[in-house]
Amino acid sequence: MGRSSRILWMVTSLAIGLVCSATAAFAETMYVQAKTAQLRAGKTSLDAVVASVKFGDSLEVVGRDGAWVEVKTSVGARGWIYNNKLSSTKPSGSSDALAKLGQSMRGGDASATTASAGARGLDKASEGYANRTGISPKDREAVDRMTSYQIPDQEVEDFLREGGLGEYAK
Amino acid sequence: MRGGSVNMRNKTIILAAMVGLALSLGSCAEVQRAAEGAARQSGNPRLANVIHGTGSVVSSLLPIGYEEESSIGQAIALQVIARYGGTVDQPELLRYVNLVGRAVANTSDRPDIAYRFAILEDNSINAFAAPAGYIFVTRGLLRQVHNEAELAAVLGHEIAHVSQKHILDVIQRSKRLAGVTEAGMAYANANPAAFKSIIDGAVKKLLDEGLDQDKETEADALGDEFAARVGYDAAAYLTLLGRLRELKGDDRAFFKTHPNFSSRIQAVQQTIQAKNLKATGLLLPDRFGKYAKKV
Predict the structure, then answer these.
(1) For A33-42, B14-23, B75-84, B124-133, which range has the lowest pLDDT when averaged over its residues?
(2) Which of B36, B69, B110, B165 to mutate against chain A (most A CBs within 10 Å)?
(3) How many whole angstroms separate alpha carbon B35 and alpha carbon B17?
(4) pLDDT tens digit string along A108-140?
(5) Bigger pLDDT: A94 vs B216
(6) pLDDT per residue over A150-169, tens digit each?
(7) Which of A13, A34, B48, B99 could form an SS bridge with B40, CB 3.0 to 4.6 Å?
């Protein structure tokens, strides 16, 4: 390789490097601001689902068209997502790092703080509170029923579709 | 004096290192125990006590975790249901209210916890939110609502109280006032009397005094935004607030915990403009009527 071709090679590499870093610097990142969301093959709710994402996932914005945003996931899946499920700032939610830190300092099990639906029964502290305040069995049962009340996500999605809400807007 | 200042400096360094390590590693209990043990072994029980006490204070200043929030939510929910005549047993209506609530909660600012909605067997007009997503509307309030978009905004307001942890702020303050530094469920289980007094204080604030005006204003703005994100007409909430403002007689008891309606309406109008929330025309009165006609 001659001297001039070495210089050309270096200049080309530098140019490619600059373009790449500029692209990386300007790539817009958005976050999933919904419990779950689907990426679709096209810009309508009728298009096939190509990937599922969840609360807090970071997505690289590739393009926009009206209320739909084309994005790429960290594992390379690409599709369209309705813009009401995106936020430009990283959401903290209940997995807030400080809250978890507090839990661990108090000697609690941080892994037990995961918000799970459908836990049954009053826990020890609220049961004790019910005993101390003379809450009736009927009212305890009402809180118990409320705690375990669940509607599958798919039924909520069907409800949105039926009402023409969210990405199902007509 | 010189020895004292070195001693103070050592304390400061150890404490700073402890808090720094704790914050970076997240295994604070271990770090704290190790620092406390080291201080004791080096023949400095006073420093060991300082480290022990500082751990508790730092711990009580940190936000309440979900496990504790859930217990607090359940305990407050027990009182709300007891004081408001129990819950309505109409499965279809209950499912409908939960579907609207879940639709709004799923794209709220805190969609990753379980939200449950119940209807209180009470003719007064009110709605409440307890921590960890326990949300209540009275039968009386449902009677004032004319369509699904209005219901979505009401539930959005309550979801915003949960997402912004408004009641937890009240609890956090009460705990500090009560001198509870050993936070978390350990304290609640070990000292049920303190837990009761803290819950009773929060219930009084929620049901009798009402939350501070700035929290209500924030919940109005965010709640309407959450409902608008789903596609509901953002102006529907204004219509409902306007209707409630005109209430007469006994119905006005509602204003005891929700005062200054005119300023709230004005603030919601400003939010709609500032955030460019759309009057989509999506009110869904028929679907609401189908489920809520027997309220």
Answers:
(1) B14-23
(2) B110
(3) 9
(4) 433 333 344 445 578 999 999 999 999 999 999
(5) B216
(6) 999 999 999 999 999 999 99
(7) B48
- Please tell me the pTM assigned to this model: 0.79
Question: What one-letter code names the amino acid at B199?
Answer: I
Q: What integer is the mean pLDDT of B131-145?
A: 97
- Whether the Cβ atoms of residue B183 and residue B58 lie closer than 8 Å to each other: no
Task: Write out pLDDT tens, residues B171-206.
Answer: 988 888 777 766 567 778 788 888 999 999 999 999
Contact present, B111 and A33 (Cβ < 8 Å): yes
Q: Is B51 on the interface with A (CB under 8 A)?
A: no
Chain A residues near residue B81 by CB distance under 8 angstroms: 139, 142-143
Q: Return phi, psi of residue B153, to 5°.
A: -70, -40
Tell me the nearest-neighbour CA distance from A80 into chain B, angstroms: 17
User: Cβ contact (<8 Å) for B114 and A35?
Assistant: no
Distance in angstroms (rounded) separating the CA atoms of residues B131 and A44:
36
B71 interaction partners in chain A (CB closer than 8 Å): 123-126
pLDDT, tens digit, 9 for 90 and up, residues A7-27: 666 666 665 555 544 444 568
Least confident window among B8-12, B61-65, B176-180: B8-12
ipTM of the complex in this document: 0.80
Q: What is the pLDDT of residue B253?
A: 72
Measured CA to CA, the distance from residue B220 to residue B215 in angstroms comes to: 9
Alpha-carbon span B228 to B222, nearest angstrom: 10
Write down the number of H helices and E strands in chain A: 5, 7
Q: How confident is the model at residue B26 (pLDDT cuts 50, 70, 90)?
A: very low
Kindly report the nearest CA distance between residue B2 and chain A, in angstroms. 34
Minimal C-alpha gap between A99 and chain B (Å) = 5
Q: Do B86 and A139 touch (CB under 8 A)?
A: yes
CB neighbours of B34 closer than 8 A, spacing ≥ 6? none
Q: Which residues of B touch A95 (CB under 8 A)?
A: 112
Orientation angle between helical segments B28-41 and B45-61, nearest 10 degrees: 160
Say if strands B134-138 and B127-130 run parallel, antiparallel, or are unpaired: antiparallel
Q: What is the DSSP string of A104-133?
A: HHTT--GGGGS--TT--S--HHHHHHHHHH
- Confirm or reject contact between A89 and chain B (CB < 8 A): no
* Strand order, beta sheet including B116-120: B116-120, B134-138, B127-130
3-state secondary structure at position A21? helix
Taking a contact as any Cβ pair under 8 Å apart, which residues of chain A between 97 and 126 contact chain B? 97-108, 110, 112-119, 122-126
DSSP letter, residue B64: P
**Residue A97: closest CA among B173, B16, B62, B166:** B62
DSSP state of B87: B
